[in-house]
Write a structure and sequence with these properties.
- The chain is mainly alpha-helical and about 70 residues long.
- The chain folds into two domains: about 25 residues; about 30 residues.
- Helices cover about 75% and strands about 0% of the residues.
- The radius of gyration is 22 Å and the shape is elongated.
- It starts with a helix and ends in a 13-residue tail after the last helix.
């Protein structure tokens, strides 16, 4: 099992997170956090799309507002 977890660690540290080493070596805060800003913008756009779709379903009258709308309630 130790080799399995070391393999996972090697995958992430040496391969998947390798682009972040580039940003760390640059030493520029704005460049280092550009990835975070991109993800934040994508998340914000996804939220806007989701709210727009909720509004579309609300206007069509397809939204079920009853107490038993969801089985887990």
């Amino acid at each position: 099992m130790r080799a399995f977890f070391e393999g996972i660690a090697d995958l992430f540290v040496n391969h998947l997170f390798a682009p972040y080493d580039f940003f760390r070596l640059i030493g520029n805060w704005w460049a280092s956090n550009s990835v975070n800003w991109v993800f934040a913008v994508i998340g914000f756009l996804a939220m806007l799309y989701w709210l727009k779709q909720l509004q579309v379903f609300e206007q069509r009258g397809e939204e079920d507002h009853s107490v038993t709308a969801h089985s887990y309630l």
